[in-house]
């Protein structure tokens, strides 16, 4: 009994040490392996559609892989193009709107400051004059720059894509590697079925692959839901720049602690200050509802997709965020994932 317990503890210690080493090596070299990691993930996603084409239409693996890859990347690039155009238009409108607001509402800003002065008589007049001077300098300095910025947004985006060799290499090698990975996965699966090779190592790989894909898809679903919910709320309320703000909200949702409050907080304050209190209150209610829903569905979605108890997911998120922020959360989440994989195949 004691020997068995000691053996389990030894295996657990070895597992944690090896996992930690592999984790740091993986993320430390991700700059160089990123295209191939992305390609492998996409290939795993495209494997089943490729198998369907081969089975349904009797296509050879080469043709089926080519069709699924072309179709997938056509969708991705179309979405990227739509996103770039939408972001460019909204950034231009934002820059112009900011310039117009600063120029046309400088008197209102001064009036607002005067009201504050009347309300709070104890404010030092010298501080107030200094603040007014600062605002005047700010408006005169940056209002002219905003117009030129708005005119160069689109060209800057195009220039960024065309002048970054690393980004172009990532795209090229990701596309090429995806095709070969997809084809290789199909061939290897056929060989395994024909040779009936399903040993322990194969089981470990399949379980790990399944759980990692489920983990990524679960968080992808959470981020997508955040984007859709925010976009719907902003469109209903008539919030300007709804697309760009929804994308920022979805990205911010990944960040610990800050979350969508980074977008909703300033918007609530802005609409309250300009007198649109109904919109501000509605945004506050939407923010509260989305935050509560996020806290409820995240452990359930992740635990359901990974087959892990929700308490374990909550513990991994809390301990990880406390120890090392976002990367700490990733570390502990995958620690639980791989521990569960090795336990299922009876290695631990």
Descriptive overview:
The chain has 348 residues and is mainly α. It has 12 helices and no strands. The protein has helices at 2-28, 30-57, 61-104, 106-119, 125-151, 153-162, 165-195, 200-237, 242-252, 261-273, 277-306, 310-344. Helix 1 crosses helix 12, helix 2 (30-57) crosses helix 7 and helix 8 (200-237) runs antiparallel to helix 12 (310-344). The relative contact order is 0.09.
Shape: globular
Chain oligomer state: single chain
Give the helix tally: 12
Distance between the termini: 16 Å
Compute the CA-based radius of gyration.
27 Å
| Secondary structure tally: strands | 0
Mean pLDDT score: 78
The helical percent reads over 70%
Give the biggest beta sheet.
none
User: Structural class of the secondary structure composition?
Assistant: mainly alpha
Beta-strand share of residues: under 5%
Counted up, domains total 2
Low-confidence stretches: none
Element-level helix/strand string: HHHHHHHHHHHH
What labels describe this entry?
2 domains, 348 residues, mainly alpha
Briefly characterize the structure.
The protein has 348 residues and is mainly α. It is 89% helix and 0% strand.
List strands and helices in order, with pairings.
Elements: H1 2-28, H2 30-57, H3 61-104, H4 106-119, H5 125-151, H6 153-162, H7 165-195, H8 200-237, H9 242-252, H10 261-273, H11 277-306, H12 310-344
């Amino acid at each position: 009994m004691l020997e068995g317990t000691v053996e389990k503890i030894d295996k657990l210690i070895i597992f944690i040490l090896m996992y930690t080493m592999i984790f740091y090596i993986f993320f430390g070299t991700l700059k160089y392996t990123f295209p191939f990691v992305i390609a492998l993930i996409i290939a795993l996603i495209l494997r089943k559609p490729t198998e369907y084409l081969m089975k349904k239409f009797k296509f050879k693996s080469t043709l089926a892989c080519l069709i699924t890859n072309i179709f997938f990347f056509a969708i991705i690039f179309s979405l990227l193009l739509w996103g770039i155009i939408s972001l460019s238009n909204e950034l231009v409108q934002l820059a112009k709107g900011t310039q117009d607001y600063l120029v046309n509402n400088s008197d209102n800003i001064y009036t607002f400051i005067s009201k504050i002065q009347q309300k709070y008589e104890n404010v030092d007049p010298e501080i107030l004059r200094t603040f007014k001077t600062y605002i005047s300098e700010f408006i005169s300095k940056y209002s002219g720059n905003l117009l030129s910025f708005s005119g160069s947004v689109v060209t800057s985006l195009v220039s960024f894509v065309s002048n970054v060799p690393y980004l172009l290499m990532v795209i090229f090698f990701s596309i090429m590697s995806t095709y070969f990975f997809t084809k290789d996965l199909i061939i290897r699966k056929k060989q395994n079925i024909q040779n009936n090779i399903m040993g322990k190592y194969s089981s470990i790989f399949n379980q790990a692959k399944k759980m990692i894909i489920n983990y990524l898809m679960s968080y992808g679903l959470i981020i997508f839901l955040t984007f859709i919910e925010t976009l719907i709320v902003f469109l209903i309320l008539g919030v300007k720049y709804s697309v760009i703000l929804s994308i920022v909200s979805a990205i911010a949702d990944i960040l610990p602690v800050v979350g969508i409050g980074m977008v909703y907080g300033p918007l609530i304050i802005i609409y309250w200050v300009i007198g649109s209190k109904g919109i501000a209150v509605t945004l506050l209610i939407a923010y509260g509802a989305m935050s509560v829903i996020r806290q409820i569905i995240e452990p359930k979605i992740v635990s359901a997709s990974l087959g892990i108890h929700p308490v374990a997911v909550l513990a991994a998120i809390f301990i990880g965020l406390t120890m090392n922020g976002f990367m700490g959360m990733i570390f502990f989440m995958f620690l639980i994932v791989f521990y569960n994989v090795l336990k299922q195949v009876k290695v631990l």
